[in-house]
Amino acid sequence: MQASLDLLITFIVQLFILVDPLSGAPVFLAITPQDSAAERRTMALRGCFVAGSVVWFFILAGPWVLGYFGIKTAAVRTCGGILLFAIALEMLYGRTSGTETSPGEERLAETKKDISITPLAIPLLAGPGTIATALIFAGRTSDLFGYLALLLGTVVVFAGSFVILSKAELLTRVLGKLGTTVMTRIMGLVLAFLAVQYVLDGVGTALGRG
After folding, report:
1. What is the pTM of this model?
2. How many domains does one find in the chain?
3. At 159, is the pLDDT very low, low, confident or very high (cuts 50, 70, 90)?
4. What pLDDT is attached to residue 63?
């Protein structure tokens, strides 16, 4: 039970860093310039639900998919660590990760009536880094309590993301651009440490040292 609790806490922290609703809040406002607060809340709720469902899918079906293609846990950790490190570098520079939304997608989103599925849910909230994290953690557990911890952690993260996005306008005023950038850089530093550890674990496992 203690192991499942530790897994839950670690997963919540890392998934929250990858989803990064704090830096996503200004982007959410930028792509919904003509929408009311109620419309933004509806789209935020739908977007978080879809993104959470994507993460649930990769937690439950990811290990089977990887097994079908013969992809080992070591490869997932190594590749996932490299991807997460690339995202961490973008965060350390105070920028929204290039794996999330491109300027073209944001311009296109401004003309869409409903942006909850794309680009909000995918790839802003559930991007490649989020999916890689789901796969890595799914590979670290094989018992029922472990999977329940990951599913519960997903709910906690996206419930929190919904609250942040629904209060995006207030949050952006309170934190300001500088505050958002500082938070992003701090989370990027933590993510960089985790990413390097994943690479070391993956390489160590591949070499028979894990």
Report:
1. 0.86
2. 1
3. very high
4. 87
Give residue 112's pLDDT band: very low, low, confident or very high (50, 70, 90).
low
Range of the structural domain that residue 26 is part of? 2-206
Q: CB within 8 A of 106, min separation 6: which ones? A: 27, 30, 31, 119
Sequence-separated (6 or more) residues with CB below 8 Å from residue 59: 134, 137, 138, 147, 150, 151, 154
Q: Report CA dihedral (90, 182, 106, 55) to the nearest 10 degrees.
A: 70
Question: How far is CA 136 from each of CA 54, 79, 130, 198, 210, rounded to the nearest angstrom?
Answer: 15, 10, 10, 9, 15
- Kind plus residue range of the DSSP H or E element containing 26: helix 21-30
Find, among 28, 19, 159, the residue nearest to 91 by Cα: 19
Residue among 103, 95, 101, 131 nearest 119 (CA): 101
